[in-house]
Design goal:
Layout: H1 2-13, E1 24-28, H2 38-42, E2 48-49, E3 56-57, H3 67-71, E4 77-81
Antiparallel strand pairs: 1-4, 2-3
């Protein structure tokens, strides 16, 4: 099921097809993040919000395409264990 989902997402968004990490979430290092908004602009499913000087990743809708991680100029986004 996960593989089929990722194949569909890869076709829809033209990204590299990657397997979804079921036990991982994307986490923001608030000490590194300078709220530049680049990650928000590249997210194909709009799962990153930037309210009042903060960055929120909605991991329930994230497709783990890694575009936000790859483009972050200060490397503030990374995978972390789901709690």
């Amino acid at each position: 099921m996960v593989v089929a989902y990722n194949l569909l997402v890869g076709r829809l968004y033209g990204g590299n097809v990657r397997l979804r990490y079921e036990n991982k979430i994307i986490k923001v290092d608030e000490n590194l993040c300078d709220i530049c908004g680049v990650c928000v602009s590249v997210c194909p499913v709009d799962c990153i919000d930037m309210p009042e000087r903060a960055l929120i990743v909605h991991n329930d809708t994230c497709i783990q395409c890694n575009k936000c991680i790859d483009i972050c100029p200060v490397r503030a986004l990374r995978y972390d264990e789901k709690i």
